[in-house]
Amino acid sequence: MTRLVHFDWAIKNLLRNKANFDILEGFLSELLQTKITIEALLESESNKKHKDDRSNRVDLLVLTEAQGHVIIEVQASMEWDYLSRVLYGVSKVVTEYIQVGQPYRNINKIISVSIVFFDLGRGEDYVYHGTTEFSGTHQHDVLRLGENEQKAYGLDKTPSDIFPEYYLIKVNQFNERIKDKFDEWVYFLKTETIQPTFNALGIRSAAKKLDILSFTEEERQAYECYEENTHYEASM
């Protein structure tokens, strides 16, 4: 079975190219269970290459069917204070992408997606999801938006929709048993291989595009020639 390049290396060297956005779109669509379309790669300090090949973060401005514009951070790192880094990264994005003089309600929803290749925290699962919810200490009710807040944010919104969401993907914790389509992506993250039967969104594109980087120059030229011929035949 063909061995593909490591995902965080691909983020740094390949997936920033608009032509390859379909790979990240598929990955994020399966994780968030909603269709993700990437509009642009935001200009940010976090988009600059890092000297450590396994330490990387990329901010993406995306458009989702359910939540409108969302900033998503895809991170891969080996740091023992990683949770603090995640907090810092989200806080930085909050302040970095609001213009002076704009109302606070213009702050975009932020979803932080962290892909970690080390043992982070204690827990048996391999995908963790965190949100913010305000619970009453006496009545034990959950805070909802009032009439004025609903006018500002939308009738269907809750406080959880305003505050950041966090996804932690503990790759090494995955037991390689496929239970859903996102598991196909986690399998790839862990093994750097994609099974022929996998059909999650974007996974076949990843199998093709991330394999090219392992080709020799001769193989790469032959593949590019094949691609050109395919485009030519499709245009006839």
Tally of individual domains: 1
List the secondary-structure elements in sequence, H or E.
HHEEEHEEHHEHHH
Based on CA atoms alone, the radius of gyration comes out at 20 Å
Distance between the termini: 34 Å
Q: Provide the low-confidence segments as ranges.
A: 49-55
Instruction: State mean pLDDT (0 to 100 scale).
Output: 83
Class based on secondary structure composition and strand pairing:
alpha/beta
Q: Spatial order of the strands in the main sheet?
A: 1-2-3-4-6-5
Number of strands: 6
Helicity level: 25-40%
Beta percentage is 15-25%
Number of helices: 8
Task: Present the secondary structure layout.
Elements: H1 7-13, H2 21-32, E1 36-41, E2 56-64, E3 68-77, H3 82-96, E4 109-116, E5 127-130, H4 147-153, H5 159-162, E6 165-170, H6 181-191, H7 203-212, H8 217-235
Parallel strand pairs: 3-4, 4-6
Antiparallel strand pairs: 1-2, 2-3, 5-6
